[in-house]
Amino acid sequence: MSVARLALTFAVIAVLGAMPAAIMAADWPTDPKLSGNASLPPGLITLQNDTSSSPITLYLDRGRTLWMDASQGKSCADCHGPLTSMKTSAGSFPRLSAGSGKLINLEDQIITCRSRAGLAGDKLESEPILALSSALHDAAKGQVIHVHAQPAQTTLWQEHLQTGAKLYTTRLGRMNLACAHCHDQNIGKQMRSDVISPANPTGFPIYRMSWQGMGSIDRRLRACYSGVQATMPPAGDQTLRQLELYLKVRAQGLTVDGPSIRR
Question: What is the per-residue pLDDT across 61-98, written as a single tens digit (0 to 9) for each?
Fold first, then answer.
């Protein structure tokens, strides 16, 4: 290991493992089966739950409007019915695409559906995609995460899952850290102003205060790559979908509580 990498590693260990008592004074939960909401201060929880003030409300209103919008052809509701009929959908992604054998997540599926309807050109972080994803996740609140393979896809699905599990424990970047170092071994500790959560993806998409906007799980995972100073995969990369799959399987049985606010 180079001197520079060794120094960075020691610096991170110091942050995670040797916090001053004043910083660590808050008694944050360390249960690995909790939602990320358990790592939020009361002020953000209050804001998240206040529909008159929460920035999430703007995305929900936009998503519900888009769901019913038939101005350019069929609406989402024309094919899928009311949002309430889709309450189990958000918790079942990522899935294997029948045609390509690739993993797709909910935002990928929304982009595909809109493209079929003649609304091409959307990206993962496009406002309509995040708004519709927000509305679908809101409809799914309280529903159990239940990702699984179709019988004919079991072998390929397991391969993707195993790759995601390996990614979770692989050291990356100049920091030489794996996801597990933070989200298994240091849950509840503070790193700067953040409290390390178990990384259970129950609350996506998220309105992140530092982004001043809504973002998908794809964006959040890429931000983690940046945080450990690793080469960032492109948006929509299969490695991000494989990691998302592993995180969803790891959180199996927890309930959807997104969209939500993060720091």
Answer: 999 999 999 998 899 999 999 999 999 999 999 999 98
**How is residue 197 written in tokens?**
């959560």
Helices 154-168 and 238-250, axial angle in degrees (round to 10) = 90
- The tokens for 1 are 């290991």
SS3 (DSSP) at 93:
coil
Confidence of residue 26 (pLDDT cuts 50, 70, 90): low
What domains appear along the chain, each with residue ranges and CATH number? 3-50+146-262 (1.10.760.10), 56-139 (1.10.760.10)
Structure tokens at 234: 């492109």
Q: For residue 142, what pLDDT band results from cuts at 50, 70 and 90? A: very high
Burial of 218 (0-12, 13-18, 19+ CB in 10 A): buried
**Rounded to an integer, what distance in angstroms lies between the CA atom of residue 126 and that of residue 116?**
17
d(CA 186, CA 142): 27
Q: Identify residue 15 by its one-letter amino acid code.
A: V
